[in-house]
Amino acid sequence: MSNETHPFPGSTTPRLAAIGIVVADMAASLAFYRRLGLPVPTEADTAPHAEATLPGGLRLMWDTYAVARSIDPGWTPPGSGTPTALAFECAGPAEVDKVYAELTASGYVGEKEPWDAPWGQRYAVVQDPDGHGVDLFAALA
After folding, report:
1. Residues 70 and 92 reside in one and the same domain
2. Which residues, including other chains, have CB under 8 Å from residue 39's CB and lie 6 or more apart?
């Protein structure tokens, strides 16, 4: 047990339960993430909010621009180069190359072609329909 003071005295420690992203086109975004294996029902394509529960219980959530503006009427879409990135682990280096090739051949923007990173992984970055960077990686043999 740590000697650190609890950040919220009298309560339990908050736990990360969900990651949310705001999207311009729900159907296009969900189609992209389904290609990466996320379990999102097709009826969510026309909804203003969608969620997928990931292994371990963490949820990935999508909200439309309209939802973001309902929470904060002054909200505007971020400019290019947004700092949000999701990372998907692939079965091996060849799968990184394969998934990157399939996504870019389907019209998604490749941000960084697969390369052998100095930290010991095969790595690539592709953008989802809203320009969020999505990392693909696998340990090098």
Report:
1. no
2. 52, 53
